[in-house]
Each structure stands twice: as C-alpha cells, then as structure tokens.
Amino acid sequence: MINTNAFGYINLLDKTADAAWLKHEAITNNIANVDTPGYKRQDVAFEDQLTRVLNKVEYDTMDAKVYHLNMNRIEPRVYTEAFDFSYRLDGNNVDIDTENVYLAENQLRYNGLISGMQAEFANLRTAMGSAS
To answer: Does 60 or 38 have the greater pLDDT score?
Structure first.
C-alpha cells in the first residue's frame, strides 16, 4: 500500500481487490469441499464493513471520504456461514450451483477493481506528464 493521500482511490481499490482475492480463495475452498460431510461454507465479510466506515466519515463528497479514510479500520474477514444450517443430511451446506455463481460474480468484481486501479495509475501518469 502506498502511504500518501494522492493514492487514496488506489489504496482503496487495492484493499478491495485483496478482499476479492480472499473471497475467491474461500469460494474455491467451498467448491473443493462440496462432498465433504459436515463442511460449512465460508465467506468473506468486507463490503458491509467498508460501507459502514465510509458512512461514518463526516464529509459530503466521496473524494473527501476516501481522502480521510483510515484503511487500517477495514480488513476482510473470513467467516463460516450458518454454522448450524445444512441443506443436506450429511451436514454440508455448500450448494455447487450457488458457489459457481458467486465465483463468476467475484471474478467480474476483481477484474473491475484491477481495471479501476489501472485507470487511476493512468490518470496519475497523465497528471505527472502535464505538470512537467
């Protein structure tokens, strides 16, 4: 992570991409354990946490919110979902079709985040080029 406010959006996108990567690992782990008796699916908590932190920042614009955002207050967290709930008699609560949808959705999110970071770096290169 780059420690300057000029990189606020890049740092936010980076943190969010890390969360998406962690979510990818959780989903692929769920898929790998679809036939494991007693396995409970895992997920990653991040988006709600990010929204809550952004809403607590008392500024009107998103630029100001991101500028004043404390990245240390948001960390993706893996958790086991519905520990006591199961669709099946063997105690496993992984639905392969749902996991595949989550995997595709998360891949699109990750690709969008990477594209966003590339665009932010392109904006910085443009700004540095026009400043000289």
So the answer is: 38
